[in-house]
Design a protein that fits this description.
single chain, disordered C terminus, disordered N terminus, 54% helix, alpha+beta, 4-stranded antiparallel β-sheet
Length: 285
């Protein structure tokens, strides 16, 4: 059933393979409220399929039962590619459902239920709030090795986004951070208005993982890979590892987990921002 969209499967499988190393304590479970969702449950279905319902929306079916959100809504997504990606998450589960690995499903739940009841303006403002404390804008005065590392690794990305969007952001070693011009905020606000609510949900998720609007837009615009974006978001930690060594399994665990969540968020943005027809053509090319 999924053979016609190999790329979507490949990206989803990469996300799942990383997720197998991760465990999270608070995620959503089918039919339960967000705050009380269990992280695991015995698999209760055999087959996973998708179908097209009313209004051209796509549904995910577990055996003959239609998937629903934690709020009890029918689980529907805007295009076939995203439906297949979500179905792949459910199909990849084994005897035990590990909900903390199902990031695409959770993002769809959030977009459908909108548990915080926010509108588009509120979502954009929340995303832009991270610009004031952006990871790549806060610099240290010492040690000099880290000062040079931040300059060499972060400055090129900062220059890229300033040129890409014709804005001024800058950086600072002050505890207050750089003063972001209102014109810069307005430019990014106008850009984010071009996103639909689903894509904004995914973008905000990526921003919260990387703690950076700059790195997130670099990833979404395909200027940065997932691995590179995560590395840049953890630059100080990586410097400390170089100086003091790696704690066996712990640092790798954190890195793989962050990559998995970031990759899922970026994939969600791209899949939710394309029409089914356009996405299907891309998968065939």
């Amino acid at each position: 059933m999924f053979r016609s969209l190999v790329r979507v499967q490949s990206l989803s499988r990469q996300t799942h393979s990383l997720n197998k190393l991760c465990q999270r304590s608070q995620h959503n479970e089918l039919g339960l409220k967000y705050s009380t969702a269990s992280t695991e449950r015995k698999r209760f279905y055999q087959d996973v399929s998708i179908s097209q319902g009313e209004g051209g929306l796509f549904e995910v079916n577990l055996d003959r039962r239609k998937l629903k959100t934690p709020a009890g809504k029918l689980f529907t997504v805007p295009n076939e590619a995203l439906a297949i990606a979500v179905a792949t998450e459910w199909d990849a589960q084994r005897e035990t459902l590990k909900f903390y690995t199902m990031h695409l499903t959770t993002l769809c739940y959030t977009a459908l239920d909108n548990p915080s009841q926010r509108n588009k303006d509120q979502m954009i403002n929340a995303a832009l709030k991270f610009l004031e404390t952006d990871t790549v804008c806060y610099r240290v005065d010492e040690p000099y090795g880290l000062v040079d590392l931040q300059k060499n690794e972060w400055d090129p990305v900062l220059h890229w986004i300033e040129n890409r969007y014709n804005v001024t952001i800058g950086s600072s070693s002050s505890i207050l951070g750089p003063e972001i011009p209102e014109a810069t905020k307005d430019t990014f606000r106008q850009h984010l208005y071009s996103y639909n609510l689903w894509s904004l949900t995914g973008l905000e998720y990526v921003i919260t993982q990387l703690k950076s609007v700059v790195l997130s837009l670099g990833l979404i615009d395909r200027h940065l890979s997932v691995e590179r974006a995560v590395l840049l978001s953890r630059l100080e930690e990586e410097y400390q590892i170089r100086c003091w060594g790696n704690v066996e399994w712990a640092h790798d665990y954190d890195t793989y987990e962050l990559r998995a969540r970031t990759a899922a968020g970026a994939l969600f943005v791209h899949l939710s921002s394309e029409s089914s027809t356009v996405k299907r053509k891309l998968m065939q090319d």
